[in-house]
Amino acid sequence: MSANPFESALHQLKRVNAVRAFNADLLARLSVPEREVRVSIPVKMDGGSIHVFEGYRVQHSSVRGPYKGGIRFHENANIDEVRALAFWMTLKCAVANLPMGGGKGGVVADPKKLSKTELERLSRGFVERLYPVLGPTVDVPAPDVNTTPEIMAWMSDEYAKLTGDTSGAAFTGKPLSHGGSEGRSLATGMGGYFVFEALKQEASLPASASVLIQGMGNVGGNAAKIFESHGHRIIAISDSHGGVCNEKGLNIAEVEAYKKEHATLKGFPGGKNISNAELLELPCDVLIPSALEHQITKANAARINAKMVLELANGPTTPEADDMLFERGIVVVPDILANAGGVIVSTFEWEHNLKGEHWTEQIVFEKLQKILSQQAEIIFKYSKDLKTDLRRGAFAVALERLDI
C-alpha cells in the first residue's frame, strides 16, 4: 500500500463497502473532490525579497452544507495530504450529523522560520488568493497544524476587508475577542474524552486507565491534561523529536513546564526518554495518536500493545494496520469520531456568529458531549450489527447520511 494518504482514504471506502454495499454512484462521487484550488502566494519578506509560497484548498463535498475544514501550515504539506483530509472531513461532519461538508487547506511553509509580520502577510495572502471560493455559505476554514486563533483572526479580518462581510462566520477557531467560541482550544481533546467515556465499558477498560499520547501540541497536550484530571495515568507523552515515559504516571504540568524551559523533553528528570516509535509499542490501556498520519502501519501493528487506540490525529492508522488490530481484538476508535470535537465546536462558532450570539463554555461542552455520546453509541451498535470494526461502522453511518 502506498503512503499516499488519499489512496488510504479510498481504500477505507472499499473496506466499508465490503461489509455493507453502498450505491456505486455515491462511492464514485466521494472518490473525487468537487473542487481543488492551487495558488501561489507571494509574500514580501522582512529583508525586502519576495518569496512565493504554494497553497491549496480542497473542497471535497457540499452534499450536507458548506465545506468545513482546517488550514495547515507545514513544510511537507502536499495536495494528496490535503485531499485526504478533506475527504475525512466530509465523513467526520456526517458522523457528527452536522450541516457541513468537507474541505481542507494547506500552505507549504514552516511558520517557525517566519517572523510574525511574515506570517501575517502569508495568512492574509492565502485569503486574498482564495476569498472568491470561501464564505459563510460556501466554505468555512478553521485552524489545523501550525495555525492558531491569531492566524484565523488575520484571515477573518482580510476576508471582511475584501468582501464587506463582517459576520465573522467565514472562519472559525478565532480568538474570543474576534467572535470565537468558548472551549474551542479544548474541543478536540475534550471531544476525544467524551467518546472514550462513551465506549470505555465496551472495551473493558479499568476505572483508572494507563494512557500513551503521541504528540503534545494543542490536541495531545490538552488531552493529556483532561485525561489526567479525570484520574487516568499518562505513562508516556511525546513531541516531534521524542518522548518521555514513567510507568507510575507523569505529572503533565511538570512535563509541559520542562518542555517550555528547555524546548525539548530530553533529560526530563521525571521519566525515561524514548522515541516516538517506542512510545507506540509500550503496554497500555489507551494509545492516543495525536500527531500526523500513518503512525500505525503493517510494520508495527503486530507490536501495538494497547486495548484501545483513540485516534485524535487524522489518519494515523493505515487500512492494513486496521485489519491487523481488528483481528487482535484491539478497539480502534476512528478519527472521524474520536477527533470530531474540533469541527463540532467550530460549527457551533459558525452558528452563533451567524445568529450574533455567544455561548458559555458549559453550554458548548454540554452540546458537544450530547452529540458525541449519541453518535458513539450509534456507531458501536452499527459495528456490532455488521460484525465489523468501529471505523467501518462509522463510515457506514456517514455514507448513509451522505446518500441524499
Task: Explain how this protein is built.
The chain has 404 residues and is an alpha/beta fold. It has two domains: 145 residues, 3-Layer(aba) Sandwich (Rossmann fold); 152 residues, NAD(P)-binding Rossmann-like Domain (Rossmann fold). 44% of the residues lie in helices and 19% in strands. It is built from 14 helices and twelve strands. The strands form two sheets. Strands 9-8-7-6-10-11-12 form a seven-stranded mixed β-sheet. α7 links the parallel β6 and β7. α1 runs parallel beside α3 and α4 packs across α5. The longest helix is centred in the C-terminal third of the chain and has 26 residues. The mean pLDDT is 96.
Main beta sheet: 7 strands, mixed
Could you report the average pLDDT, rounded to the nearest whole number? 96
- Under the CATH scheme, the architecture of the largest domain is 3-Layer(aba) Sandwich
Q: Fraction of residues in helices?
A: 40-55%
Main sheet: which strands, in order across? 9-8-7-6-10-11-12
